[in-house]
Write a structure and sequence with these properties.
Largest sheet: 6 strands, mixed
Shape: globular
Structural class: alpha+beta
Order of helices and strands: HEEHHEEEHHEEHEEHHHEEHHEEH
Number of helices: 12
Mean pLDDT: 87
Strand content: 25-35%
Low-confidence stretches: 194-198
Radius of gyration: 21 Å
Bound molecules: zinc ion
Number of strands: 13
């Protein structure tokens, strides 16, 4: 079927973006994310089997959702799944100023031996999800760790907020059938405002939160990945009966890797002469590839000391 340029343009306008929103009267704040070409770009660096591509897509959406929590420009959010005896050995994604990247290291033999769609447990084993916030201006680093439990990454993320942060939260992630579009929502209850002076565990009931949580739960996976549905319209569908829905920001998302020849040279330079000698190939090069984007950096050994 020939593609329709007008429809394609409309659809592209609703991909690779995040919107931040607030429901001031309900003390709720959230973010909606939908990824399209960015997903393809990140995934194309490796030849991932479908279940791995899917979990990485979900993780990238989650990373973009969590990036909303960063307060200052230049801050970085890193999501890392550390696993024990799972098919996946390592999953890393990060976000900085709208730029996303990520990769997965996994055992292809064990994945191939799976007879059905692997569960979160068979993918990660007894794993942990580490979420690290690096604020650029204050240089503050904060890390939260939660067990990778439940049936999905979204569930694990919800545990992260409700257990380690004491913030009632709702997280939904979706990937479409083709694997080319993924989306998600993060909704949080912040009765004490952005800074959350008083921790929430002192309060037992949150009627205003229950109300918006129930509304947000009506969101369907098909809506999250529908490129014909602008995120603003989706927001309106969910919360149109609310007193006020405030759109705080619209952030274009892109694939960004921060690997560079200078960085790779710096890393190689830290090795001793004997170690470098072992890494060098017949042509006198040490070849290092970036795990995020598969870009290859051949470094000439003779240039290193120059
Ligand atoms: Zn790279």
């Amino acid at each position: 079927m020939a593609s329709d340029p007008v429809n394609d343009a409309v659809a592209a306008a609703n991909l690779d973006e995040a919107i931040g929103f607030a429901l001031p009267a309900r003390n709720a704040r959230g973010r909606l994310v939908r990824l399209g070409p960015v997903l393809d770009e990140v995934l194309s660096a490796h030849d991932y089997p479908a279940p791995i591509a899917r979990i990485l897509s979900e993780a990238l959406v989650m990373t973009a959702l969590l990036g909303a929590v960063l307060k200052d420009a230049g801050g970085q959010l890193t999501l890392q799944a550390q696993t024990e005896a799972g098919i996946i050995d390592l999953l890393v994604c990060d976000y900085r100023e709208g730029e996303l990247r990520g990769y997965v290291r996994f055992d292809s033999g064990r994945l191939a031996a799976e007879t059905s769609l692997p569960s979160l447990f068979s993918l990660f084993g007894k794993g942990y999800l580490a979420i690290t916030f690096d604020q650029a201006v204050t240089k503050e680093r904060y890390q939260g760790i939660v067990p990778l439990e439940g049936s999905s990454l979204a569930e694990a993320a919800q545990h992260f907020f409700s257990q380690s942060e004491q913030i009632p939260s709702l997280v939904r992630l979706a990937v479409n059938d083709t694997g080319h579009i993924a989306g998600g929502i993060l909704l949080q209850h912040l009765p004490e405002g952005e800074e959350g002076r008083e921790r929430l565990h002192t309060r037992l009931d949150h009627p205003e939160w229950e109300h918006v949580r129930i509304l947000a739960e009506t969101i369907r996976a098909a809506e999250l990945v529908d490129s014909a549905l602008p995120l603003e319209n989706l927001l309106w569908r969910l919360f149109h009966e609310e007193e006020e829905v405030r759109i705080l920001s619209t952030i274009p998302l892109s694939k960004g890797c921060r690997c560079s020849l200078e960085y790779v040279r710096e890393v190689i330079a830290r090795f001793g002469p004997e170690e470098r000698e072992q890494m060098v190939d017949d042509d006198g090069f040490i070849s290092v590839d970036c795990e995020f984007c598969s870009r290859l950096f051949p470094i000439k050994l003779s240039d290193l000391d120059a």
